[in-house]
Amino acid sequence: MNLHPMKLVTIICEAILEERVVELLRESGAHGHTAFNVRGSGHQGERTADITETGNVQIQVIVKPTVATTVLERLHRELFAAYAMVAYESEVHVMRPDKF
Amino acid sequence: MNLHPMKLVTIICEAILEERVVELLRESGAHGHTAFNVRGSGHQGERTADITETGNVQIQVIVKPTVATTVLERLHRELFAAYAMVAYESEVHVMRPDKF
Amino acid sequence: MNLHPMKLVTIICEAILEERVVELLRESGAHGHTAFNVRGSGHQGERTADITETGNVQIQVIVKPTVATTVLERLHRELFAAYAMVAYESEVHVMRPDKF
Amino acid sequence: MDLLTAIQSNLLSPAVLFFVLGVFAAVSKSDLKFPESLYTTLTIYLLIAIGFKGGVAIHEAGVGAVWLPALAAMALGGLIPLWTYPVLRKLGSFSIADAGAIAAHYGSVSAVTFIAATNFLKSIHEPFENYASTFLAVMESPAIIVGVMLGKGAFGGKFSLSDQGVRHALRDAVLGRGVLLLIGAMVIGALSGKNGMNSVEGFFVTPFQGVLALFLLEMGMVAGRRLGDLKKVGVFLLLFGLIAPVVHGAAGVLLGTWVGLSTGGAMLLGVLAASASYIAAPAAVRLSLPEANPTYSLTAALAITFPFNITVGVPFFFEIAKRLQP
Amino acid sequence: MDLLTAIQSNLLSPAVLFFVLGVFAAVSKSDLKFPESLYTTLTIYLLIAIGFKGGVAIHEAGVGAVWLPALAAMALGGLIPLWTYPVLRKLGSFSIADAGAIAAHYGSVSAVTFIAATNFLKSIHEPFENYASTFLAVMESPAIIVGVMLGKGAFGGKFSLSDQGVRHALRDAVLGRGVLLLIGAMVIGALSGKNGMNSVEGFFVTPFQGVLALFLLEMGMVAGRRLGDLKKVGVFLLLFGLIAPVVHGAAGVLLGTWVGLSTGGAMLLGVLAASASYIAAPAAVRLSLPEANPTYSLTAALAITFPFNITVGVPFFFEIAKRLQP
Amino acid sequence: MDLLTAIQSNLLSPAVLFFVLGVFAAVSKSDLKFPESLYTTLTIYLLIAIGFKGGVAIHEAGVGAVWLPALAAMALGGLIPLWTYPVLRKLGSFSIADAGAIAAHYGSVSAVTFIAATNFLKSIHEPFENYASTFLAVMESPAIIVGVMLGKGAFGGKFSLSDQGVRHALRDAVLGRGVLLLIGAMVIGALSGKNGMNSVEGFFVTPFQGVLALFLLEMGMVAGRRLGDLKKVGVFLLLFGLIAPVVHGAAGVLLGTWVGLSTGGAMLLGVLAASASYIAAPAAVRLSLPEANPTYSLTAALAITFPFNITVGVPFFFEIAKRLQP
Ligand SMILES: Nc1ncnc2c1ncn2[C@@H]1O[C@H](COP(=O)(O)O)[C@@H](O)[C@H]1O
Ligand SMILES: Nc1ncnc2c1ncn2[C@@H]1O[C@H](COP(=O)(O)O)[C@@H](O)[C@H]1O
Ligand SMILES: Nc1ncnc2c1ncn2[C@@H]1O[C@H](COP(=O)(O)O)[C@@H](O)[C@H]1O
Ligand code: NA
Ligand code: NA
Ligand code: NA
Predict the structure, then answer these.
(1) Which residues, at least 6 apart from B39, have a Cβ–Cβ distance to it below 8 Å?
(2) CA distance readout (Å), A78 to A21, A71, C100, F25
(3) Is residue F28 situated within a structural domain?
(4) For residues F235-256, average pLDDT
(5) CA-based nearest distance E15→chain F, Å
(6) What is the pLDDT of residue F155?
(7) Do F107 and F143 meet the contact criterion of CB atoms below 8 Å apart?
(8) What are phi and psi of B59, to 5 degrees?
(9) What is the band of E160 on the pLDDT scale with cuts at 50, 70, 90?
C-alpha cells in the first residue's frame, strides 16, 4: 500500500462565516471539505453553541501543500483581523492523492 | 513523561456506513473509536446534514501502525469504490500505548 | 508565509467532565479551546450520545510544547484512572504563534 | 365535489403549500436549514402518531376485520417490484442493480403520502377504515427485500446472505426504526385502546396536521435540492415516475375494493401502492446495492412521484375508488 | 386598566418571568443549556406561526386593507437608521462602522417583542388588526440594508457590491430564513385561509404561548450572558438603548394612527419601531461590517432595549396609542 | 378498583407500554436512536411543565399549606442515605464510594416515576394535592449531598470541599438544571397563577401525556441497554433494587399520612421516596465519586427500581396509602 503526504488545514471560526470560508477554499483549489459545529473559547471570549449567532464551526480540508499555503495566506489577509478564528495545518497521508 | 507514537486514522463517509466501518475497525484490531456527524462536499457532490440519508459521519481511531495499514487497505478494497468516502492517516503521540 | 510548530492536544472523555477539563487547560496555560459532542467505544464500553450522561466530548487545544506536556501530565495524574478518557498529542503549524 | 375542485382544494392545503415553500427555499438557495435532530424528531413523531392511531382503530375494529386486507396489501407490496424490474431492465435499459433499486423504492411506501391522503379524505368528510395505517406498516419491508434480491441478480445466483451490506440492509428492512415505531405504536394503541388515546390525544392528534406541514417544508427542501438532478435521470425515468404511480395506484384501488374496503379505504391502498419510499428504501438499498446510483431512485421517488401523488394523485385515486365501488 | 396595573400584569406573564429565569440561570452560571437545534426549531416555529396567522388575517381583511399601513411600516424601518446614525456618530462618537451597525439593529425589528405586544393586547381584550404581522415581515430587511450602507461609508464612496461580505449580507437580509419563513407562511396562510387554519391550529396556535415562554427562557440566558458587557458599552449606549425605543415607538404609534390603524394596531407598529433586531441584523451586520464591534449593538439590543420593551415599553406604547386615537 | 385491576390498567397505559417498546428496541439492537437534543428538550419540557403546574397549585393552596409536608419530604430525602449506606456496606459488602453512590441515588428522586404516579391517580379519579411536585423539587438535592459525603468517607475525615470534583458536584446538586427548572417554573407558576396557566396550558398541559410517552420510549432504550449489566451487579443489588423501594415507599406513605396529606398525596410522597434518581444523581456522583462504579447505581436505579415502580410500585403504594388513611 502506498501512502501519499497531503496537508490537512483546519479552520475554526464563527459559524456565520462557513459559506465564505468554503467559497475561499474552492477558489484556492480544494476539491472538497468537511464541516461541523463546535463551541469554544479564545481571544474573542467564550463562544457557546446554543444559538447559531455565537456558535463556531470547524472546517477541515485536505489539500496539496501549495493549496494549503494559498488557503492560509488568504485567510490571513481577508479574515483573520476581523473575526474570531483559528487556522492550522498538519501533515496527513492518503491513499488516493489524485482525489485532492 | 513518555509519549509513544501511534497512528490516527480518520474516515469521513456516508452516515449510513457508520456501523459497517466500526465493525471493520474492530475486526482489524482497533480497541475503540470515536464518531460524530459532519457535513461536507467532495467528488460525490454536496452532503448536507439536515437529513440522515445525506449526512456524513467522521470516525476517528487510534491504532498501532500495522493496524492502520490493515484498516486503510480494507477500506480501499471493500468500500472506496462504491461510497462517498475519504480516509487518511496521521501521526499522534499517546501516554498509554497498551490501550490501543 | 511563516508557519510555526505548535502542539494540538486532543482529549476525548465523558461529557460531564468538560468543565473540569477546560478548567485544567486554562490553569495549565492554554489561551483557548474547542469542544464538541461525540460518541464512541473503548475500554469502558460503548458510549452512546443520545443522552448526555453516556455521551462523550472531544476537546481540542493548541498550545506550546511545554504546555502540552503539563496538560497531559495533569490529565494522567488527576483523571485517567477514574474516567473513560483518551488523550493524544500531535504536531500542527500555525501562522500566529503568539496567539497560543 | 368533482375531481377538479378536489385537486384544487388539495393544492391549497397548508401541507402541500409548505412543501412548495420548501422547494422554493432550496431552489432560491436560502440559508434556511433544519437541524438534523429536528428531521429525526419529526419522523419519530409522525410514525408513532400514525401507528398509535391505527392501533386504536384495530382495537375497535377487531383483528378479524384487519388481517385480510392487510395480507393483500403486503402481497401487493412484494409483487410490485416483480413487474417493475423487467420494465426498467427492458424498456429503461437500466443495470441490474439500478433496476432492482428503483423497483424496491416503488414497491415500498411513503408514510407522508399516506397521511396526505387521509387528510384529503377527512377534508371532504369521506369515511375510511381507521386501521388503514396497518397497510402502511406491512407494506414497507417486503418490496425492499424483493427489490434488493433482484438487484443482486438473485436469479443469476449472485445474491448471498454472507454479503455484509445485504445482511445489514435486510435487518434494517425488517427491524428498522420505521417498522419498529409503526408496528410498536400500533401494538401499544391496540393494547391501550380508547383510554390510551384519551391520554395522549393532545400530543399525537391535536398538533398532528401542523407537524406534518413542518415536515413537508423540510421534504420540500430535500426534493428541491434534487430538482437539478432531473436532467440526469433522463426522459424514461421521468415518465416512469408519473406512470408507475398511476398503474400501481389503480391496482391498489382495485385490490382494495375487491377485498371489501370502503371507497376511502380502497383509495388509501391505492395511494400506498402508488407511493414510492424515500426514507426506508434509500438507506437499505444504499447499503446492499452500492453499485446502484441513488440519484435515479431518489430523484424519481422524491422529486417526481411524491409531488405528483400529493397534488394530483390523491384526488385522482379517490375518483377511481368512487367509480369502482359496487 | 391604568398604566401601572398594565405594567404589573405584563411583568407577571409567564413569558416575561421565563425571560427573568433565563437571565438568572446565566448569571448564576447554572449548567442549564439549550441544544442549538432546539433554539433553531423554536425560531422556525415562531416565525411560521406568526406568518401563518398574519396570512389568514390578510385572507379575511383583503390585501386592499393591508398595503398602505404595510408600506408605511416598511418606510419607517428604512428611515430610522438615517436619523439614528448621525446621533451615534456625533453624540456617541462611534466609528462609521459601529454607528451603521447599531443603526441597522434599531431600524430592524424583533419578532418576539412583537408577539409579547400582541399577547398584552389579548390579555386586556383590546382588538387589533390581525394582519399586523405583515408589518413585522416587511420591516426586517430595509433597515439592515440602509444601516450596512451607512456603516460602509456609503456617502464617502467606500460602499461596494463587489465586497463579498456585503453581497452575502444583503442576500441574507432579503432572502434570509427569517424573511423567507415569515413571508412564506404568510402567503400560505393567505392562500389556505380559514380551512387551512382549522387544520393546523392545534400546532401553530394552541401551544404557541407556551413555546414562546420556552423561547424566552433561552433568550434570557443569551441576554444574561451579555449583562457583563454592560460596563463595556458605556453610559451613552445605555441611555441610547432606553431612549431610542421611546422615540421610535412614539413615531411608530403616530404613523400607525395616521394611516388609520386601530389603537391596538398603532401600538403594534410603535412596538415594532421601538424594537431592535437581535437575530437577522447581527448576522448580516457581522458579515458585512466586520470592523464593527458586535458587543455594542448586541448588548444594547438584547440586554437593554429588549427587556425594556417587553416589560415597560409594551404597556407604555399602548398608553400613547390610546391617547392619540382620534 | 382492587390492586390487581389497578396494576393491570397501569401496565396498559401508553407511557408504560412505550417504555417496554424502548426496552425491546434496545434489546433487539434496532437502529432507532433519539438525537441527544431531543432527550435534552424532553427533559427541559417535563421539568418546566411539572414545576409550573405545581407552582400554580401553590398559588391556589397558599404557601401555608405547603411548607410542612415539603419540609418533611426534604428531611426524608436526606435521611434515606443514612440507613441505606450501612446496609450496603455491611450486607452488600460494597466499597465506601459505591455504598455512598448507591445511597445518593436512592435518597434522591425520579421525576418520571412521580408523573407516572400522578397519571395513575388521575386515571382512577383519585384527588391529590396538586402542589405535590414541590416535594419532587425539594427531594432531589439533599440525598445527593449526604450520599456524596458518605461516599467520600465523611466520617473517616477524607471529605474535603477543596476537591474539585466534589465542588462541581455539590454546585450541580444545588443549582443544577433539574433543580433550577423545577423551582424556577414553580415560582413562575406561583407568581402568574390561573391567568398564566390559561395562556400556556396548550403547551405545558394538553400534550404533556404524549410527550411523557415519547420520553419513556427513550428511557426504555437507555434501560434496555443496561439489561446486560444485570448479571454484573449481583443478586444482592437486584434484591436491594426491589426491596429498597418497598421500604422507602412505605416510609414515605406513612410520613405523608402523618403530616396530613390526602390518600393521593401520601401515596405520591411514598412514590418519591421509593424512586431512585437516574438523571441528577448519576452526574453529580460521577463527578465527585469517580472511584464508584456507575454500573451498580445506574443499573439498579434504571433497570430494576424504575420499572418496578412504574408498573407494580405505583398501585401498590396507593393500596398502602388507602389502608393507612385515618
Ligand atoms: N488555543 C486554542 N486551541 C483550540 N481552539 C482554539 C484556541 N484558541 C481559539 N480556539 C478556537 O477558535 C475560536 C476563535 O478563537 P479566537 O479568535 O481566539 O477567539 C475559539 O472560539 C475556539 O473555538
Ligand atoms: N478534500 C477534502 N477535504 C476534506 N474533506 C473532504 C475532502 N473531500 C471529501 N471530503 C469529505 O468526504 C466526503 C466524501 O467525499 P467524496 O467521496 O469525495 O464525495 C465529503 O462529503 C466530505 O465530507
Ligand atoms: N482507539 C481509540 N480510537 C479512538 N477513540 C477512542 C479509542 N479508544 C477510546 N476512544 C474514545 O475515548 C472514549 C473513552 O475511552 P475508554 O476510556 O477506553 O473507554 C471512548 O468512548 C472513545 O470515544
Ligand atoms: Na408503492
Ligand atoms: Na426597530
Ligand atoms: Na428516593
Answers:
(1) A34, A35, A36, B47, B48, B49, B55, B56
(2) 10, 10, 21, 51
(3) no
(4) 97
(5) 9
(6) 61
(7) yes
(8) -115, 130
(9) low
Give the chains touching D; criterion: ≥3 Cβ pairs < 8 Å. Answer: B, E, F
pLDDT score of E191 more than 90? yes
- Which ligand is closest to the CA of E144, given by its number? 5
Per-residue confidence (pLDDT) for residue D153, from 0 to 100: 82
CA–CA distance, D302 with E310 (Å, rounded to integer): 44
CB E286 within 8 A of CB E320: no
Give just the sign of the alpha carbon dihedral D228, D232, D237, D238.
positive
Q: How confident is the model at residue E94 (pLDDT cuts 50, 70, 90)?
A: very high
Contact by Cβ (8 Å): E93, E243: no
Q: Given B38, B42, B87, which is nearest A35 (Cβ)?
A: B38
Sign of CA dihedral D142, D148, D150, D153: negative
Interface test with C, best of F29, F214, F286, F293 (most C CBs within 10 A): F286
* E62 backbone φψ class: left, alpha, beta (φ>0; ψ -120 to 50): left
* pLDDT of B71 strictly over 90: yes
For chain F, percent helix, then strand, then coil, each to nearest 5?
A: 85, 0, 15
Residue with cell 438544571: F177
Residue of F8, F17, F23 for testing the chain D interface, max D β-carbons within 10 Å: F17
**Contact C/B (≥3 CB pairs under 8 Å):** yes
The grid cell for D199 is 391520554
Q: Looking at ligand 2, which residue's alpha carbon is closest to its atom 17?
A: B84
Domain housing E274: 34-324
> Could you give the CA distance from residue A57 to residue A83 in angstroms, rounded to a whole number?
13
CATH number at residue E184: 1.20.1530.20
| pLDDT above 90 for E167 | no
Task: Please give the Cα distance from E207 to B83 (Å, whole number).
Answer: 43
pLDDT band at E156 (very low <50, low <70, confident <90, very high): low
pTM: 0.94
A43 CB within 8 Å of a chain E CB = no
Number of domains in chain E: 1
Q: Is the CB of C25 under 6 A from ligand 1?
A: no
**Ligand closest to CA E278:** 5
**What ipTM describes this predicted complex?**
0.94
What pLDDT, on the 0 to 100 scale, is given for residue E155?
61
C-beta separation of E178 from E51 below 8 A: no
Q: Do F199 and E13 touch (CB under 8 A)?
A: yes
Q: What is the DSSP letter of C51?
A: S
* Domain assignment of residue D301, yes or no: yes
**Could you report the per-residue pLDDT of A27-60, keeping only the tens digit for each?**
999 999 999 999 999 999 999 988 888 899 999 9
Q: Is A56 in the pocket of ligand 1 (CB under 6 A)?
A: yes
Q: What is the crossing angle of helices D133-151 and D177-204, to 10°?
A: 160
Range E90-113 average pLDDT: 95
Question: Is F75 inside a domain boundary?
Answer: yes
Residue C41 Cβ < 6 Å to ligand 3: yes
Q: Is A43 in the pocket of ligand 1 (CB under 6 A)?
A: yes
**Which of D167, D214, D286 is the best substitution to test chain B (most B C-beta atoms within 10 A)?**
D286
User: Which residue, E262, E236, E22, E11, is CA-closest to E116?
Assistant: E11
Mean pLDDT of F38-50: 94
Q: Which residues of A lie closer than 8 Å to B, measured between beta carbons?
A: 1, 3, 6, 8, 22, 31-36, 62, 90-96, 99
- As a whole number of angstroms, the distance between CA E47 and CA F182 comes to 28
Q: What is the DSSP letter of D74?
A: H
Q: Which atom of ligand 1 is nearest to the CA of A39?
A: 23
Instruction: Please report which confidence band the pLDDT of residue E161 belongs to, taking 50, 70 and 90 as the band edges.
Output: low
Distance CA B47, CA C57 (A): 24
Q: Give a yes or no: residue E263 inside a domain.
A: yes
Closest CA to F269 of F288, F256, F258: F256
F2 contact D CB<8A: no
